[in-house]
Amino acid sequence: MATLKFLGAAQQVTGSCYLIETGQNRILLECGILQGRDRHDHEIEIPFSFDPQSINAVIISHAHLDHSGLIPLLTKQGYRGPIYTTTVTQSLLPIMYDDAASLMQSDIDRKNRRLLRAGKKTIEPPYSTKDVEQALSQVIGLVYEKRENLLPGIELRFQDAGHILGSAIVELWLEDNNTKRKLVFTGDLGNSCAPLMKDPTIINEADVLLLESTYGDRNHRPLDETLDEFKTVIKTAAEIRGNILIPSFALGRTQDLIYWLGQLYHDGELNHQKVFIDSPMAIKISHVYERFHSLLNEDDPSFRHFMKEGWENWLPDLTYTQSVEDSMALNRVSGGAIVIAGSGMCTGGRILHHFKYNLWNHKTQVVVVGYQAIGTLGRVLVDGADMVKIFGDEIAVKAKIHTLGGFSAHAGQDQLINWAMNFQSPRPRLFLVHGEPDSMQVLQQRFVREHQWDAHIPSMGEVINI
After folding, report:
1. pLDDT at 45 (0 to 100)
2. N or C, which end of the chain is more exposed by having fewer CB within 10 Å?
3. pTM to 2 decimals?
4. Which pLDDT belongs to residue 46?
5. DSSP alpha helices (H): ranges in 145-243?
6. What are the structural domain ranges in the chain?
7. Which CATH number fits domain 3-218+410-465: 3.60.15.10, 3.50.50.60, 3.40.50.720, 3.40.50.2300?
8. How far apart are CA 195 and CA 369, in angstroms?
9. Residue range 190-221, pLDDT digits in tens
């Protein structure tokens, strides 16, 4: 009988990873990095509890690094089989891995300077550009909705998850010892209020369902209220001549923000404040969004206008800052400028430099637009810290911190339940993944109390029969 082992995102939000074994084959579903509190020092030293060379195929739901970021390490340790994902994700992964390697090298360089000053041995990066090139050469892009034969007795189909461009719900049909079972893994389900993405595809049959639960304990604030607060922040910053800093995920959230800011501009709500996208990766990803616009929400009239205008014309006051020098120059800009920079959880990237030069200023407005994992700087700020450490310096937090949950790319609690309730009787066995324990328990209780559907919360390393 086929089995599934939970190797990541089990009572955690990051590090998505699951091992599926049939009598003949081993499939790795997801291969993501750990972030925030989930991250451990030994992750790079001992990243896998299995032999990478024993894996027959890898499936990746989407390009975010907490779902795909350990793939170069997998190939470094000998994996040479196919890596299946959507065609769009195949186009995004080179951008994601190039940026990850750059940030990793910067982090290693800082650590090595400290080690040298302490007279200690320096460390090497966990993988090289050669490992990245090898990994990318193994990626096979598949289109949505087409059922594919992966291995003998194993079929795969990707459906649109509506989370980011190229994100997929994974459908797997497994045949083992004349027993057929279907497993559905949601990946990250999208928020139906997201402006650019289509709604997640409805699926109604499965034997086993792995359901993400990032926001299992709550619904997002209504979008109109979120936009009203956003407009208030923009107006306040303009009046007091303070800058707005937005830590944003380069893939997905930044493109949504360009859309909403352009919409506010066309509605006369932006008053010509300059908008800076201070992320080379986000700039490259925006071009991929333009290339694959047919997969986006073209049914919406505003979106059709948006794509006709193009990113730059949609928001005339938009400036891309590519170079480090241009990024540093933004710290001399004042008067209500809006700076969107990575990383989304404030764990690295250019947003840290902007925080170092602006968090202590009471005129600064920080707008948090995405999930902040426990242990990240973003979560520390959201939780109300008065002082933070950035690049070894203590920085007072005098800026106003705003959390706008309505911009989330994840489904809220009701959206998760409504999507899952489309499954026909008999309902699949339900397992909650990709969430903090408290969020999972709240969602679990709602399934049981309101729908008499038992939802299991697996622990790390747990094995189930499919």
Report:
1. 55
2. N
3. 0.92
4. 61
5. 223-240
6. 3-218+410-465, 223-407
7. 3.60.15.10
8. 14
9. 999 888 999 999 999 999 999 999 999 999 99
